[in-house]
Amino acid sequence: MADVVIAGAGPTGLMLGCELALAGADVLILEQRAGATTTESRAGGLHARTLEVLDQRGMVEPFLAEGRPLQVAHFSGLWLRLENLPTRYPHLLALLQSHVERLLAEHAASLGVTIRRNAEVTGLHQDHDGVTVTLADGGTVTGRYLVGCDGGRSAVRRLAGIGYAGTDATLTSLLGDVELADPPAGNVFQHRTDRGDYSVLGFEAGWYRVMTTQTGVLAQDGPVTLDQLRTTLTEIAGTDFGLHSPRWLSRYGDAARQADRYRLGRVLLAGDAAHIHYPAGGQGLNTGVQDAVNLGWKLAAVLRGDATEALLDTYHDERHPIGARVLDNTRAQVALGRYDAQTEALRATVAGLIAQPAANEQLAAMITALDVAYPLGDGHPLVGRRLPDVDLPGGRRAYQLLHSGRPVLLDLGATPVAVPTDWADAVDHVPAHGTAATWQLPVLGAVPAPAAALVRPDGHVAWASGTDGDTAGLADALSRWVRPLAARV
């Protein structure tokens, strides 16, 4: 029996596998596809917070080496500047999902994660001890927990009986990775006409991504054909740019749905299995990877016996509102992308607002997920927010302290704060007196550095003290997020 069976070897499933294996769990990933990684380009980039969580695990460099930094993102095609965001990665890293999956799969393999391909999930049964998964070939596998990372049509979600409520599609977008005989002079992004909008983006040498969107047009049944893409592109753009030799053709709409619950007993959901939405702003892959980082350390703690299953409920409590927010902001982007005169007037108004630095930062922080704040308590403004990657004495960075995936007590004040004896073996205590007196947070700006901070393995601050030597609330935070006293071995 595996500790955790993961359905789906996309970015979410692979990242979750890495997190669990780092913590010592035995992980089996089941992937319906036969190939090692997707041959389709799919998602196109990694946002700042995703780069940060990769950095927290010491695995960001291969992604940076293969990607291309872009200092802009967008909100319904209106450009957002990223260069002033308070992060080491104030940019979007353009990197196709096929490369992301390959790099994550390589890292997972280095940690001992087993990936079983051509393994389609067709049934599941859970009891008090674990979950039995039935496969299309008639075989079964068992795990103490099962996590569905198997996409918007998740078999795990359906078989578990978890609802997936939301709104239906109101538009259709076509996508083609193609070659062009007569490409435009430069990249075209969401060029708007009264018949829809189109994009022509040069990716890797020799081919382009062509996309079209038409509101009020609902998807037809069956696979997309090159003739359909050619006809729609010509209708909107007035030319087909000589498109030919498709590598991948697809369609998508703006249906937005979210799982009623992210956990049902020993079955959990992450990524598109938990939430789908219009891919506005490139948030889908990134939200899924961040789901995995929130869930992984919690599931590992329960497997070790360091936490009760109540800790798993905090995964839903923290990530479900984040998924709902992504659904809402993508719905807003769809509404802002329509083509009537009223919407054009609204776009002009919103564009004027985005030109203001404060509004730009607020939207950019939301799209990049740098502003995510979990409801972990009151007090210092850092509590619930991601720890900034501040420079520490001795040439270290804060995120280097998180490479092991263990919680950290960052001791920054002149008066040392000791880890209480009951948790001394479970927390990395790092004295760092002499760090900058103020830290920059997205939207909030400069905030006083805490005297001490308890940082969860996912990089979010669970407790912070503003006064040297003050440990009020630290034991409660350790008991909640690291190990209840009753679980101490």
Automatic annotation (TrEMBL):
InterPro entries, alphabetized: FAD-bd (IPR002938), FAD/NAD-bd_sf (IPR036188), RIFMO-like (IPR050641)
Gene3D superfamilies in alphabetical order? 3.30.70.2450, 3.40.30.120, FAD/NAD(P)-binding domain (3.50.50.60)
Q: Which UniProt keywords apply?
A: FAD, Flavoprotein, Monooxygenase, Oxidoreductase
Per the UniProt record, which residue ranges are transmembrane?
A: none
Q: Which GO terms describe its molecular function?
A: FAD binding; oxidoreductase activity, acting on paired donors, with incorporation or reduction of molecular oxygen, NAD(P)H as one donor, and incorporation of one atom of oxygen
- Source domain of life is Bacteria
Upper classification of the source organism reads: Bacteria, Bacillati, Actinomycetota, Actinomycetes, Micromonosporales
What name is this protein filed under?
Putative monooxygenase
Q: Which residues form the FAD-binding domain?
A: 2-330
